[in-house]
């Protein structure tokens, strides 16, 4: 046998080994494709949509883009969410100057979410059935109106929440023990949630408390010490990065004021006298949503409690205790403040996926061909499209209400206004009196003032916010001002100081959560402010 023949055989063997390795990991490739297709359909950040008109998402992106261009969060721009979330949007802004960067970030996070669901399912099911569980879970995780428009803090928390569930079942599977890397990642997950939106940390608080009690009952002090040390290491690593950055940039006080003080003291919450009354109120808020949402009731209440009695899934009382602690603590921290928006429920959807396991462990898994698997994934994509509902505002339906209420405009106000703004040299902009409407993003403009939009804090709690915005208007410090009113209002309803100092150059009626009129004003008497 010649040397050339030997080399050829080796090359063929190497190619064959590589092909087998690729096939063995094919389910991950499949899950990645599912993540792409799902986010493409349900998120308004995808190329299927002209823009994402959700005010929260646009505020996150303005903060991320500002950070990417040298502005310091909380010191140069005011917002109330956490620095970890804004860092994710900083990455998105670096990936693309449009919503496409957010779309890419969403794909990565949703792929990680599907991988964790797959790993949880593999404790109980074969590969094909585990993939099916992933497909069905996408329907619940993207269900409208909870998913909203894409890019929420809750959506980007899915991996951290599912990792809680993964560790609960891993703890059960491996004889009530976890390795150090698992605890380190648990601490990192807690840190990420704490510095994104701290009301989302409930599942991890419940997990750690319940885990400590379980290990004490099991008299496994060594495991308990490992859990404390390694989890604190992971959590402290995130804390160190946050504190180091804001210390170096002399913005620790700004971080405290914007992220903690304004949320705890200034943000409107239920005025209840005791901790107990707030806890009871949190449960009442949680339950109230089920009155006209029977599907939610089935999977978040009935399904979960039925599953708890399933010995094939919850094989130990320790597992039940860990699961219930994580679930109920997440409910309490989510609604403890007494104020809620519909998308708050999205953070609970990972728990709605668990009852699916009880169904699949009882289904004959031997007759699921890859053709049926593909057809089922397609069916779930169609179901997600219908239950999410965002597709009706996509480019597929160009004359939708999100573009224009009266079909006279072919572009959303943000796109149309941005074209007007970009005709000027070095334009500046103020988003007046409301949350970020998306014009900073559409016109590719960074804010020049601290309170670049009006957050949901009453004027008497934070008068500096509107005082600054009015000062900017009165002194003509920006070239353009954008504001909005409920549909049907006249120009006389626009604040007088805007009408005195700026002239109306465009208006448009369109749907954005409700029927609205958007108004664009340009400064009077000078070409630049």
Automatic annotation (TrEMBL):
Membrane-spanning parts: 22-42, 99-118, 130-147, 201-218, 227-248, 268-288, 295-314, 320-336, 343-363, 369-387
Q: Which UniProt keywords apply?
A: Membrane, Transmembrane, Transmembrane helix
- Name assigned to this protein: Uncharacterized protein
Q: Which species is listed as the source? A: Vagococcus acidifermentans
The lineage, from the top, is: Bacteria, Bacillati, Bacillota, Bacilli, Lactobacillales
């Amino acid at each position: 046998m010649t040397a050339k023949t030997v080399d050829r055989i080796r090359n063929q063997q190497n190619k064959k080994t590589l092909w087998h390795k690729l096939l063995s990991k094919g389910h991950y490739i499949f899950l990645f494709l599912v993540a792409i297709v799902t986010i493409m359909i349900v998120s308004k950040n995808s190329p299927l949509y002209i823009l994402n008109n959700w005010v929260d998402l646009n505020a996150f992106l303005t903060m991320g883009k500002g950070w990417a261009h040298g502005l310091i969060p909380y010191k140069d721009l005011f917002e109330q969410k956490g620095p970890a979330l804004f860092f994710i949007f900083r990455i998105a802004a670096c990936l693309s100057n449009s919503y496409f960067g957010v779309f890419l970030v969403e794909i990565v996070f949703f792929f990680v979410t599907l991988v964790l669901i797959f790993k949880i399912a593999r404790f109980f099911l074969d590969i094909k059935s585990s993939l099916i569980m992933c497909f069905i879970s996408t329907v619940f995780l993207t269900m409208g109106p909870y998913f909203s428009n894409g890019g929420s803090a809750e959506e980007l928390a899915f991996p951290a929440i599912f990792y809680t569930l993964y560790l609960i079942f891993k703890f059960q599977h491996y004889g009530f023990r976890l390795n150090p890397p698992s605890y380190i990642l648990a601490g990192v997950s807690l840190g990420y949630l704490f510095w994104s939106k701290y009301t989302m940390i409930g599942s991890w608080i419940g997990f750690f408390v319940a885990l400590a009690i379980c290990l004490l009952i099991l008299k496994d002090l060594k495991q308990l010490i490992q859990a404390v040390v390694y989890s604190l290491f992971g959590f402290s690593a995130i804390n160190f990065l946050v504190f180091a950055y804001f210390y170096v940039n002399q913005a620790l006080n700004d971080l405290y004021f914007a992220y903690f003080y304004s949320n705890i003291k200034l943000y409107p919450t239920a005025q209840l006298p005791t901790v107990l009354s707030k806890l009871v109120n949190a449960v009442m808020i949680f339950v109230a949503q089920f009155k006209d949402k029977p599907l939610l009731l089935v999977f978040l209440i009935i399904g979960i409690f039925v599953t708890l009695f399933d010995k094939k899934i919850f094989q130990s009382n320790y597992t039940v205790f860990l699961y219930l602690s994580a679930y109920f603590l997440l409910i309490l921290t989510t609604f403890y403040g007494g104020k809620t928006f519909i998308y708050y429920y999205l953070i609970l959807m990972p728990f709605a996926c668990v009852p699916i396991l009880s169904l699949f462990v009882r289904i004959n898994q031997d007759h699921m061909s890859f053709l049926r698997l593909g057809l089922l994934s397609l069916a779930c994509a169609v179901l997600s499209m219908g239950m999410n509902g965002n597709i009706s505002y996509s480019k597929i339906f160009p004359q939708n209400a999100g573009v224009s209420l009266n079909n006279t405009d072919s572009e959303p106000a943000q796109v149309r206004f941005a074209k007007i703004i970009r005709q000027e040299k070095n334009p500046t902009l103020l988003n007046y009196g409301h949350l970020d409407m998306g014009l900073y993003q559409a016109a590719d403009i960074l804010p020049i003032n601290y309170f670049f939009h009006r957050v949901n804090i009453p004027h008497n709690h934070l008068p500096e916010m509107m005082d600054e915005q009015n000062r900017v208007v009165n002194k003509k410090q920006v070239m353009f001002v954008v504001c909005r009113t409920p549909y049907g209002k006249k120009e006389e309803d626009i604040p007088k100081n805007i009408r005195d100092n700026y002239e109306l150059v465009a208006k448009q009626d369109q749907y954005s959560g409700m029927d609205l009129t958007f108004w664009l004003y340009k400064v009077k008497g000078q070409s630049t402010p």
